[in-house]
Amino acid sequence: MKNDDLQTCYLDGKHFSLSEGELFSELAAPVQRIIRVKHPKIKSTDFVCNRDILHYTLQHVDTLVQDDHKKLIKLDRRLAKTMTKANFKITDVNDVMKHSLTVGEKIANAVARFGGSWTFIIIFLIILATWMILNGMQLFGIHFDKYPFILLNLFLSCVAAIQAPIILMSQNRAADLDRMNAKNDYHVSLKSEQELRILHAKLDLLSREQMPHAISIAQIQLKMIGKLQREVNELHHDIRELKGQR
Prior knowledge:
mainly alpha; two-stranded antiparallel sheet; 4 strands
């Protein structure tokens, strides 16, 4: 190899053949930018050896990976901050209702539950029928409430007057239960919405930046593999020439 074929690497000052490097203008734009940071006076016609090209190319790859990692960390912090800042407290409705019921409210619930059952209806019908039969037919000499059963009407009115507010008390508790369930549903929906927003942001980051970065890294790898393959072929060629000379 003649000395005229040797090129001086601008970065480390060592001599290499033209096939062992590239001109600065032939390098990828991101690699050029990284080199210019440390060597601002470099020209487009200056020679850079493959070893230095590999070094700065790997720096570029590390920059892409670190940039993607930082953005993912930023999104995770945003999610954590949102989840901490927002009020997503979910209440155990049954536990709250169980410990907040007073004796009167428990009685009201029991009365409303019994008053709305077939057991109450059947028992009430039996009492009415027995009352009217005994007093109407005067069986066993019983006729304390003659027709038209004024005392029975008074009894029914009293039962209705007492039962109505008790049922209303139970309905108020049911309304409180519904409000607590609705509040829980709102918090669950809000939390799901926030998580979906962060998920969409991650997907957007993946499609807009990380996938192009992954493609760029794959292209760099293929280019480096191609260079290595050429160097291996040149070594095989030199070895064959040396064997032929012997």
